Protein backbone atom coordinates (compact mmCIF):
# COMPACT_ATOMS: atom_id res chain seq x y z
CA UNK A 1 0.00 0.00 0.00
CA UNK A 2 2.86 2.44 0.58
CA UNK A 3 3.72 2.18 -3.10
CA UNK A 4 0.15 2.99 -4.07
CA UNK A 5 -0.20 6.22 -2.13
CA UNK A 6 2.21 8.44 -0.29
CA UNK A 7 2.15 8.51 3.48
CA UNK A 8 0.22 11.26 5.16
CA UNK A 9 3.40 12.90 6.42
CA UNK A 10 4.90 12.91 2.94
CA UNK A 11 1.75 14.32 1.40
CA UNK A 12 1.04 16.89 4.06
CA UNK A 13 4.55 18.31 3.92
CA UNK A 14 5.55 20.56 1.08
CA UNK A 15 7.75 18.82 -1.40
CA UNK A 16 7.30 16.39 -4.26
CA UNK A 17 3.54 16.12 -3.96
CA UNK A 18 2.72 19.65 -3.05
CA UNK A 19 5.41 21.52 -4.90
CA UNK A 20 5.18 24.57 -2.62
CA UNK A 21 7.55 25.66 0.09
CA UNK A 22 6.77 24.68 3.65
CA UNK A 23 4.11 27.03 4.98
CA UNK A 24 1.32 27.26 7.48
CA UNK A 25 -1.71 25.04 6.70
CA UNK A 26 -4.14 26.41 4.13
CA UNK A 27 -6.68 28.78 5.57
CA UNK A 28 -10.01 30.01 4.18
CA UNK A 29 -8.28 32.41 1.76
CA UNK A 30 -6.36 29.60 0.04
CA UNK A 31 -9.46 27.39 -0.11
CA UNK A 32 -11.45 30.27 -1.63
CA UNK A 33 -8.67 30.89 -4.14
CA UNK A 34 -8.57 27.24 -5.22
CA UNK A 35 -12.36 27.32 -5.62
CA UNK A 36 -12.10 30.46 -7.75
CA UNK A 37 -9.38 28.92 -9.91
CA UNK A 38 -11.59 25.92 -10.65
CA UNK A 39 -14.49 28.26 -11.52
CA UNK A 40 -12.47 30.29 -14.00
CA UNK A 41 -10.81 27.25 -15.55
CA UNK A 42 -14.11 26.29 -17.22
CA UNK A 43 -16.02 29.57 -17.15
CA UNK A 44 -15.85 30.07 -20.92
CA UNK A 45 -17.65 26.80 -21.63
CA UNK A 46 -20.38 27.40 -19.08
CA UNK A 47 -20.93 30.85 -20.58
CA UNK A 48 -21.29 29.34 -24.04
CA UNK A 49 -23.89 26.93 -22.69
CA UNK A 50 -25.85 29.59 -20.81
CA UNK A 51 -25.61 32.11 -23.66
CA UNK A 52 -26.19 29.48 -26.34
CA UNK A 53 -29.67 30.73 -27.32
CA UNK A 54 -28.32 34.27 -27.83
CA UNK A 55 -25.37 33.03 -29.92
CA UNK A 56 -27.62 30.84 -32.05
CA UNK A 57 -29.92 33.80 -32.70
CA UNK A 58 -27.10 36.30 -33.45
CA UNK A 59 -24.85 34.13 -35.59
CA UNK A 60 -27.32 31.56 -36.89
CA UNK A 61 -25.07 28.64 -35.93
CA UNK A 62 -26.47 25.13 -35.59
CA UNK A 63 -26.74 22.99 -32.45
CA UNK A 64 -23.95 20.80 -33.81
CA UNK A 65 -21.68 23.82 -34.35
CA UNK A 66 -22.35 24.98 -30.80
CA UNK A 67 -21.31 21.54 -29.60
CA UNK A 68 -18.07 21.83 -31.56
CA UNK A 69 -17.01 24.78 -29.39
CA UNK A 70 -17.09 22.44 -26.41
CA UNK A 71 -15.18 19.84 -28.43
CA UNK A 72 -12.45 22.38 -29.22
CA UNK A 73 -11.98 23.43 -25.61
CA UNK A 74 -12.04 20.01 -24.05
CA UNK A 75 -10.15 18.36 -26.88
CA UNK A 76 -7.31 20.80 -26.28
CA UNK A 77 -7.55 20.21 -22.53
CA UNK A 78 -7.40 16.42 -22.99
CA UNK A 79 -4.36 16.63 -25.27
CA UNK A 80 -2.55 19.12 -23.03
CA UNK A 81 -3.32 17.44 -19.70
CA UNK A 82 -0.33 15.02 -19.66
CA UNK A 83 2.04 17.92 -20.38
CA UNK A 84 0.28 20.10 -17.81
CA UNK A 85 0.60 17.42 -15.13
CA UNK A 86 4.33 17.10 -15.65
CA UNK A 87 4.67 20.89 -15.76
CA UNK A 88 2.94 21.29 -12.41
CA UNK A 89 5.14 18.60 -10.86
CA UNK A 90 8.22 20.35 -12.25
CA UNK A 91 7.60 24.11 -11.71
CA UNK A 92 5.08 24.07 -8.86
CA UNK A 93 1.39 24.86 -8.44
CA UNK A 94 1.68 28.57 -7.56
CA UNK A 95 3.16 29.57 -10.92
CA UNK A 96 0.70 27.32 -12.73
CA UNK A 97 -2.34 28.73 -10.91
CA UNK A 98 -1.35 32.30 -11.74
CA UNK A 99 -0.83 31.30 -15.39
CA UNK A 100 -4.18 29.46 -15.37
CA UNK A 101 -6.08 32.58 -14.29
CA UNK A 102 -4.28 34.87 -16.75
CA UNK A 103 -4.95 32.47 -19.63
CA UNK A 104 -8.61 32.24 -18.62
CA UNK A 105 -8.83 36.04 -18.71
CA UNK A 106 -7.31 36.14 -22.21
CA UNK A 107 -9.63 33.38 -23.47
CA UNK A 108 -12.73 35.13 -22.11
CA UNK A 109 -11.59 38.44 -23.56
CA UNK A 110 -11.21 36.87 -27.01
CA UNK A 111 -14.67 35.29 -26.78
CA UNK A 112 -16.12 38.71 -26.01
CA UNK A 113 -14.36 40.17 -29.07
CA UNK A 114 -15.19 37.30 -31.45
CA UNK A 115 -17.01 38.47 -34.60
CA UNK A 116 -18.16 34.97 -35.43
CA UNK A 117 -17.78 31.23 -34.85
CA UNK A 118 -14.20 30.97 -36.20
CA UNK A 119 -12.51 33.21 -33.61
CA UNK A 120 -14.82 31.78 -30.99
CA UNK A 121 -13.34 28.33 -31.66
CA UNK A 122 -9.80 29.75 -31.37
CA UNK A 123 -10.61 31.40 -28.03
CA UNK A 124 -12.22 28.28 -26.60
CA UNK A 125 -9.29 26.15 -27.76
CA UNK A 126 -6.91 28.48 -25.90
CA UNK A 127 -9.13 27.99 -22.85
CA UNK A 128 -8.19 24.31 -22.87
CA UNK A 129 -4.85 25.06 -21.23
CA UNK A 130 -6.34 26.54 -18.02
CA UNK A 131 -8.57 23.49 -17.82
CA UNK A 132 -5.59 21.16 -18.18
CA UNK A 133 -3.70 22.94 -15.38
CA UNK A 134 -6.60 23.20 -12.94
CA UNK A 135 -6.82 19.82 -11.22
CA UNK A 136 -3.07 19.02 -11.09
CA UNK A 137 -2.22 22.43 -9.61
CA UNK A 138 -5.06 22.64 -7.09
CA UNK A 139 -4.62 19.03 -5.99
CA UNK A 140 -0.93 19.62 -5.28
CA UNK A 141 -1.72 22.67 -3.18
CA UNK A 142 -4.12 20.53 -1.12
CA UNK A 143 -1.55 17.76 -0.65
CA UNK A 144 1.03 20.33 0.42
CA UNK A 145 -1.02 22.45 2.80
CA UNK A 146 -4.07 20.47 4.02
CA UNK A 147 -3.93 17.75 6.72
CA UNK A 148 -5.07 14.36 5.47
CA UNK A 149 -8.26 14.38 7.56
CA UNK A 150 -9.49 17.57 5.87
CA UNK A 151 -8.52 16.82 2.29
CA UNK A 152 -11.86 15.33 1.30
CA UNK A 153 -13.78 18.38 2.51
CA UNK A 154 -11.36 20.88 0.94
CA UNK A 155 -11.33 18.91 -2.32
CA UNK A 156 -15.12 19.05 -2.44
CA UNK A 157 -15.07 22.80 -1.84
CA UNK A 158 -12.52 23.52 -4.53
CA UNK A 159 -14.20 21.14 -7.03
CA UNK A 160 -17.46 22.94 -6.31
CA UNK A 161 -15.78 25.94 -7.90
CA UNK A 162 -16.54 24.45 -11.31
CA UNK A 163 -20.23 24.56 -10.44
CA UNK A 164 -19.81 28.03 -8.99
CA UNK A 165 -18.73 28.96 -12.50
CA UNK A 166 -21.87 27.29 -13.88
CA UNK A 167 -24.00 29.24 -11.43
CA UNK A 168 -22.28 32.52 -12.31
CA UNK A 169 -22.80 31.86 -16.02
CA UNK A 170 -26.39 30.74 -15.59
CA UNK A 171 -27.69 33.54 -13.38
CA UNK A 172 -25.74 36.76 -12.64
CA UNK A 173 -23.82 36.87 -15.93
CA UNK A 174 -26.93 35.93 -17.92
CA UNK A 175 -28.86 38.71 -16.20
CA UNK A 176 -25.99 41.08 -16.98
CA UNK A 177 -26.11 39.94 -20.60
CA UNK A 178 -29.79 40.83 -20.74
CA UNK A 179 -28.86 44.39 -19.72
CA UNK A 180 -25.53 45.14 -21.41
CA UNK A 181 -25.31 42.39 -24.03
CA UNK A 182 -23.55 39.05 -23.96
CA UNK A 183 -20.19 40.54 -24.90
CA UNK A 184 -20.24 42.87 -21.91
CA UNK A 185 -21.01 39.95 -19.61
CA UNK A 186 -18.09 37.92 -21.00
CA UNK A 187 -15.69 40.87 -20.67
CA UNK A 188 -16.78 41.31 -17.05
CA UNK A 189 -15.81 37.69 -16.39
CA UNK A 190 -12.44 38.26 -18.11
CA UNK A 191 -11.63 41.23 -15.87
CA UNK A 192 -12.56 39.27 -12.77
CA UNK A 193 -10.23 36.41 -13.80
CA UNK A 194 -7.34 38.88 -14.17
CA UNK A 195 -8.00 40.20 -10.66
CA UNK A 196 -8.02 36.61 -9.35
CA UNK A 197 -4.57 36.07 -10.92
CA UNK A 198 -3.19 38.99 -8.92
CA UNK A 199 -4.84 37.56 -5.80
CA UNK A 200 -3.20 34.17 -6.41
CA UNK A 201 0.23 35.75 -6.81
CA UNK A 202 -0.15 37.48 -3.43
CA UNK A 203 -1.80 34.64 -1.49
CA UNK A 204 -0.12 31.35 -2.40
CA UNK A 205 3.23 30.33 -0.87
CA UNK A 206 6.20 30.38 -3.21
CA UNK A 207 6.98 27.17 -5.08
CA UNK A 208 9.78 24.98 -3.77
CA UNK A 209 12.56 23.68 -5.98
CA UNK A 210 11.48 20.71 -8.04
CA UNK A 211 12.26 17.34 -6.48
CA UNK A 212 12.72 13.97 -8.10
CA UNK A 213 9.60 11.78 -8.13
CA UNK A 214 9.34 8.84 -5.79
CA UNK A 215 9.34 5.18 -6.71
CA UNK A 216 7.21 4.10 -9.63
CA UNK A 217 3.69 3.32 -8.38
CA UNK A 218 2.61 -0.30 -8.07
CA UNK A 219 0.71 -1.82 -11.04
CA UNK A 220 -2.47 -2.02 -8.97
CA UNK A 221 -2.32 1.72 -8.30
CA UNK A 222 -1.69 2.46 -11.97
CA UNK A 223 -4.64 0.24 -12.90
CA UNK A 224 -6.95 2.09 -10.53
CA UNK A 225 -5.86 5.44 -11.96
CA UNK A 226 -6.47 4.25 -15.52
CA UNK A 227 -9.89 2.90 -14.51
CA UNK A 228 -10.76 6.28 -13.02
CA UNK A 229 -9.67 7.89 -16.29
CA UNK A 230 -12.08 5.69 -18.29
CA UNK A 231 -14.83 6.31 -15.73
CA UNK A 232 -14.21 10.04 -16.09
CA UNK A 233 -14.32 9.85 -19.89
CA UNK A 234 -17.79 8.29 -19.87
CA UNK A 235 -18.97 10.57 -17.10
CA UNK A 236 -17.67 13.59 -19.01
CA UNK A 237 -19.57 12.60 -22.16
CA UNK A 238 -22.87 12.82 -20.30
CA UNK A 239 -22.12 15.89 -18.17
CA UNK A 240 -20.84 17.90 -21.14
CA UNK A 241 -23.98 17.17 -23.13
CA UNK A 242 -26.10 18.44 -20.26
CA UNK A 243 -23.93 21.53 -19.73
CA UNK A 244 -23.96 22.46 -23.41
CA UNK A 245 -27.56 21.74 -24.35
CA UNK A 246 -29.68 22.07 -21.20
CA UNK A 247 -30.45 25.77 -21.74
CA UNK A 248 -31.05 25.22 -25.45
CA UNK A 249 -33.36 22.30 -24.63
CA UNK A 250 -35.35 24.51 -22.28
CA UNK A 251 -35.55 27.30 -24.85
CA UNK A 252 -36.18 25.37 -28.07
CA UNK A 253 -38.14 22.33 -26.88
CA UNK A 254 -39.85 23.46 -23.68
CA UNK A 255 -40.57 27.06 -24.70
CA UNK A 256 -38.70 28.78 -21.85
CA UNK A 257 -37.48 32.36 -22.23
CA UNK A 258 -33.68 32.65 -22.73
CA UNK A 259 -33.06 33.96 -19.20
CA UNK A 260 -35.28 31.27 -17.66
CA UNK A 261 -33.57 28.59 -19.73
CA UNK A 262 -30.18 29.86 -18.55
CA UNK A 263 -31.44 29.52 -14.97
CA UNK A 264 -31.48 25.75 -15.56
CA UNK A 265 -27.68 25.95 -15.75
CA UNK A 266 -27.69 27.88 -12.48
CA UNK A 267 -29.78 25.14 -10.81
CA UNK A 268 -27.33 22.56 -12.13
CA UNK A 269 -24.48 24.62 -10.73
CA UNK A 270 -25.95 25.03 -7.24
CA UNK A 271 -26.81 21.33 -7.00
CA UNK A 272 -23.34 20.41 -8.25
CA UNK A 273 -21.69 22.61 -5.62
CA UNK A 274 -23.70 21.02 -2.82
CA UNK A 275 -23.15 17.52 -4.19
CA UNK A 276 -19.40 17.93 -4.60
CA UNK A 277 -18.94 19.36 -1.11
CA UNK A 278 -21.18 16.78 0.56
CA UNK A 279 -20.08 13.64 -1.27
CA UNK A 280 -16.37 14.56 -1.13
CA UNK A 281 -16.65 14.99 2.61
CA UNK A 282 -18.11 11.47 2.82
CA UNK A 283 -15.39 10.15 0.48
CA UNK A 284 -12.74 11.52 2.81
CA UNK A 285 -13.75 9.01 5.48
CA UNK A 286 -11.84 5.70 5.57
CA UNK A 287 -13.26 2.97 3.34
CA UNK A 288 -15.92 5.10 1.64
CA UNK A 289 -14.40 6.62 -1.49
CA UNK A 290 -13.95 3.45 -3.59
CA UNK A 291 -17.65 2.56 -3.53
CA UNK A 292 -18.95 5.99 -4.39
CA UNK A 293 -18.19 6.43 -8.14
CA UNK A 294 -20.41 3.49 -9.08
CA UNK A 295 -23.20 4.56 -6.72
CA UNK A 296 -23.17 8.16 -7.93
CA UNK A 297 -23.19 7.01 -11.55
CA UNK A 298 -26.33 4.99 -10.81
CA UNK A 299 -28.00 8.11 -9.45
CA UNK A 300 -26.90 9.99 -12.58
CA UNK A 301 -28.68 7.43 -14.78
CA UNK A 302 -31.95 8.24 -13.02
CA UNK A 303 -31.29 11.96 -13.43
CA UNK A 304 -30.79 11.62 -17.20
CA UNK A 305 -34.03 9.64 -17.45
CA UNK A 306 -35.80 12.54 -15.73
CA UNK A 307 -34.57 14.87 -18.48
CA UNK A 308 -35.92 12.46 -21.09
CA UNK A 309 -39.26 12.43 -19.25
CA UNK A 310 -39.30 16.24 -19.35
CA UNK A 311 -40.07 16.12 -23.10
CA UNK A 312 -43.72 15.22 -22.35
CA UNK A 313 -43.71 16.59 -18.76
CA UNK A 314 -41.75 19.88 -18.92
CA UNK A 315 -41.55 20.64 -15.18
CA UNK A 316 -39.40 17.55 -14.68
CA UNK A 317 -36.50 19.40 -16.34
CA UNK A 318 -35.91 21.28 -13.08
CA UNK A 319 -35.81 18.04 -11.07
CA UNK A 320 -33.51 16.48 -13.65
CA UNK A 321 -31.10 19.43 -13.53
CA UNK A 322 -31.04 19.22 -9.74
CA UNK A 323 -30.33 15.47 -9.84
CA UNK A 324 -27.60 15.74 -12.50
CA UNK A 325 -25.75 18.19 -10.27
CA UNK A 326 -26.25 16.09 -7.15
CA UNK A 327 -25.00 12.82 -8.63
CA UNK A 328 -23.17 13.11 -11.97
CA UNK A 329 -21.31 16.33 -11.28
CA UNK A 330 -20.41 15.25 -7.74
CA UNK A 331 -18.84 12.01 -9.00
CA UNK A 332 -15.93 13.88 -10.59
CA UNK A 333 -14.98 15.43 -7.24
CA UNK A 334 -14.96 11.99 -5.62
CA UNK A 335 -12.59 10.83 -8.37
CA UNK A 336 -10.16 13.57 -7.37
CA UNK A 337 -10.31 12.44 -3.72
CA UNK A 338 -9.38 8.93 -4.87
CA UNK A 339 -6.54 10.21 -7.05
CA UNK A 340 -4.95 12.14 -4.19
CA UNK A 341 -5.36 9.19 -1.83
CA UNK A 342 -3.51 6.85 -4.21
CA UNK A 343 -0.91 9.19 -5.74
CA UNK A 344 2.72 8.18 -5.23
CA UNK A 345 5.07 10.90 -3.95
CA UNK A 346 5.99 13.31 -6.71
CA UNK A 347 3.26 12.06 -9.10
CA UNK A 348 0.14 13.83 -7.87
CA UNK A 349 0.18 16.23 -10.79
CA UNK A 350 0.63 13.51 -13.40
CA UNK A 351 -2.00 11.18 -11.89
CA UNK A 352 -4.48 14.05 -11.56
CA UNK A 353 -3.79 15.01 -15.16
CA UNK A 354 -4.43 11.48 -16.45
CA UNK A 355 -7.87 11.31 -14.82
CA UNK A 356 -8.61 14.87 -15.93
CA UNK A 357 -7.60 13.99 -19.49
CA UNK A 358 -10.24 11.26 -19.52
CA UNK A 359 -12.86 13.70 -18.23
CA UNK A 360 -11.92 16.33 -20.81
CA UNK A 361 -11.93 13.79 -23.63
CA UNK A 362 -15.49 12.93 -22.65
CA UNK A 363 -16.38 16.60 -22.74
CA UNK A 364 -14.91 16.81 -26.25
CA UNK A 365 -16.74 13.75 -27.59
CA UNK A 366 -20.11 13.96 -25.85
CA UNK A 367 -21.71 17.19 -27.13
CA UNK A 368 -21.18 16.59 -30.89
CA UNK A 369 -22.66 13.10 -30.56
CA UNK A 370 -25.58 14.49 -28.57
CA UNK A 371 -26.12 17.37 -31.01
CA UNK A 372 -26.06 15.09 -34.06
CA UNK A 373 -28.49 12.65 -32.42
CA UNK A 374 -30.87 15.42 -31.37
CA UNK A 375 -30.82 16.93 -34.86
CA UNK A 376 -31.76 13.54 -36.31
CA UNK A 377 -34.21 12.19 -33.72
CA UNK A 378 -35.05 14.81 -31.07
CA UNK A 379 -34.11 15.51 -27.47
CA UNK A 380 -35.71 12.38 -25.98
CA UNK A 381 -33.22 9.94 -27.55
CA UNK A 382 -30.43 12.41 -26.77
CA UNK A 383 -31.12 12.22 -23.03
CA UNK A 384 -31.35 8.42 -23.29
CA UNK A 385 -27.84 8.46 -24.77
CA UNK A 386 -26.67 10.43 -21.73
CA UNK A 387 -28.28 7.84 -19.44
CA UNK A 388 -26.43 5.07 -21.30
CA UNK A 389 -23.11 6.91 -20.90
CA UNK A 390 -23.65 7.23 -17.14
CA UNK A 391 -24.60 3.55 -16.92
CA UNK A 392 -21.37 2.58 -18.70
CA UNK A 393 -19.37 4.77 -16.30
CA UNK A 394 -20.94 3.00 -13.34
CA UNK A 395 -20.07 -0.38 -14.81
CA UNK A 396 -16.43 0.64 -15.20
CA UNK A 397 -16.31 1.84 -11.57
CA UNK A 398 -17.74 -1.33 -9.98
CA UNK A 399 -14.33 -3.12 -9.73
CA UNK A 400 -13.05 -0.29 -7.53
CA UNK A 401 -15.45 -1.51 -4.84
CA UNK A 402 -13.99 -5.03 -5.06
CA UNK A 403 -10.46 -3.59 -5.02
CA UNK A 404 -11.16 -1.88 -1.70
CA UNK A 405 -12.50 -5.09 -0.18
CA UNK A 406 -9.38 -6.92 -1.36
CA UNK A 407 -7.12 -4.30 0.25
CA UNK A 408 -8.95 -4.65 3.55
CA UNK A 409 -8.28 -8.38 3.54
TrEMBL record:
Q: Which SUPFAM superfamilies match?
A: MFS general substrate transporter
Q: Which keywords, in A-to-Z order, does the entry hold?
A: Cell membrane, Membrane, Transmembrane, Transmembrane helix
What subcellular compartments does it reside in? Answer: Cell membrane
Which stretches are transmembrane?
A: 30-52, 64-85, 97-126, 228-248, 260-279, 291-311, 317-340, 352-376, 382-402
Its membrane topology is listed as: Multi-pass membrane protein
Give the matching Pfam families.
MFS_1
Record's protein name: Arabinose ABC transporter permease
Entry superkingdom:
Bacteria
Which residue stretches belong to region Disordered?
1-25
Tell me the ranges covered by the Major facilitator superfamily (MFS) profile domain, including all copies.
30-406
Q: Which InterPro entries match?
A: MFS, MFS_dom, MFS_Efflux_Transporters, MFS_trans_sf
Major location (coarse): membrane
What Gene3D superfamilies would the database entry show?
MFS general substrate transporter like domains (1.20.1250.20)
The signal peptide stretch is none
Q: Which GO terms describe its molecular function?
A: transmembrane transporter activity
Which cellular components does GO assign to this protein? plasma membrane
Amino acid sequence: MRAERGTDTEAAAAGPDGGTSRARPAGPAVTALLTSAMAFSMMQLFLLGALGPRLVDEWGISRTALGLTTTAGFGAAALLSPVAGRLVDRVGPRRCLVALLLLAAVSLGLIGAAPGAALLLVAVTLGGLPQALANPATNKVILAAVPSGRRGAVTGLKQSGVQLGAFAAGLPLSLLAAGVGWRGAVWTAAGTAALAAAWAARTLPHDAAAEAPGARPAPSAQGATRRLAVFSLLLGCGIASVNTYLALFGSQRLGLAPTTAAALVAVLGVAGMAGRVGWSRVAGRPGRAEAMPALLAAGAVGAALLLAAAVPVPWLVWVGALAIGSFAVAANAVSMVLVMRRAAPGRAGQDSALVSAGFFAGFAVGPPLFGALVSATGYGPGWLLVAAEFAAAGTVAVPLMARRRGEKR
